[in-house]
Each structure stands twice: as C-alpha cells, then as structure tokens.
Amino acid sequence: MDLTSIIATLVLLIIIVIIAIVNKVIKLKKKNNIIKEFMNLANGKGCIISKFDFWNNTKIGFDMENGILFFIRNLKNHENKFVINLQDVLKCYINKVTRTVDFNRTKQLVTDRIELVFTFIDKNKPNVCLEFYNTDYDNLNLTGELQLAEKWEQIANSFMNIHSGKV
Q1: Same-domain check for residues 39 and 63
Q2: What distance in Å separates the CA atoms of residue 94 and residue 89, rounded to the nearest whole number?
Q3: Tally of structural domains, the chain
Q4: The model's pTM
Q5: pLDDT tens digit sequence for 6-50
C-alpha cells in the first residue's frame, strides 16, 4: 500500500467516526429534550417522575410517591395527554385487539392495537385507554410495545395492590 492510499483510508475512517459521534450527540440531545419536557409536565403537577419510557411518539412516566401516571402520545394532528391518579383506579389491564387474516393459505394473527385500560373506582368516570400501539399510526411491525404495556400494567397494579392493602 502506498502512502496516498493509507492517508485516504485514514481520512475516510476519521470522517466515518466523526459522523457517528455527531449522530450519537444529536440522538442524546433529542432524548434529553424529551425527558426534560416530560419532567416539566410532571413538575407542573407537583410530581417527580421516577420511572419512564418513551418510544416512537409516545412517553409514559410514573411518580411512585404520589401514584400519578403521565402519558403523552403525539399523533399527526393532535397530542393525547393523560394524567392518572392510580389511587382512583380500580383495575388496570391490557386490551390487545387482533384479527385473523389469510396469508398464503395460512391464517395469521395480526395485532391492530395494544392499549392499557384503567377502570376507576368511581363507576361514573369512563375508562381511560392509553394506546401503546395502533396500526393506523405506527409501524406495521410491533417493536416491543406489548412488552412495554405489560411492564406498565405490572407497575400500575403493583402500586395499586400496595396502596389498597392487597399486598
């Protein structure tokens, strides 16, 4: 290998490394901005989010001390925001909407929607459905939304069991 080839290779490698670092910094800043925005929402309600997750255009967080769950889902035309006091909730469960389709002479089960449903102690208060996945807005393939819904169902139910004396 001659000196020109070595220098060209090194310059190319340096450019690739710089691009990778810049992309990492941009993603980290975006993540920090999302977290900051979410924390500001909670602070406005006198809460501190101790657990949170975010994916696609959706954020969920929980103030364990006060039992307040925060959920934001940004859709194309609007934003859904929910603040739920788990001390007012009777039960929490996952609603998974599926359908069967024929694909190459085999039946396939397709998930259309995954939501976390909260039923309140006050029967006059309507259920709240937190949408984790919907084929109308999200990718056609699930990317961990069911596992996230299961995780948050467990977090909510654990809090409610502890604070209702069902330990």
Answers
A1: no
A2: 14
A3: 2
A4: 0.77
A5: 888 999 999 999 999 999 988 888 877 777 877 887 888 888 888
Do 34 and 102 reside in the same domain of the chain? no
pLDDT digits (tens, 9 = 90+) for 74-105: 888 888 889 999 999 999 999 999 888 887 88
**How far is the C-alpha of 73 from the C-alpha of 54, rounded, in Å?**
10
Indicate if 68 and 109 belong to the same structural domain: yes
Q: What is the pLDDT of residues 114-149, one digit of tens each?
A: 999 999 999 999 999 999 999 888 877 888 899 999
Q: What is the dihedral of CA 11, 16, 20, 22, to 10 degrees?
A: 50
Check residue 144 and give left, alpha or beta (phi > 0: left; psi -120 to 50: alpha): left
By residue range, what is the domain housing residue 5?
A: 1-44
Same domain for 84 and 149?
A: yes
DSSP symbols for 113-146? EEEEEEEESSTTSPPEEEEEEETTTS-SS-SSHH
Q: Rounded to an integer, what distance in angstroms lies between the CA atom of residue 160 and that of residue 167? A: 9
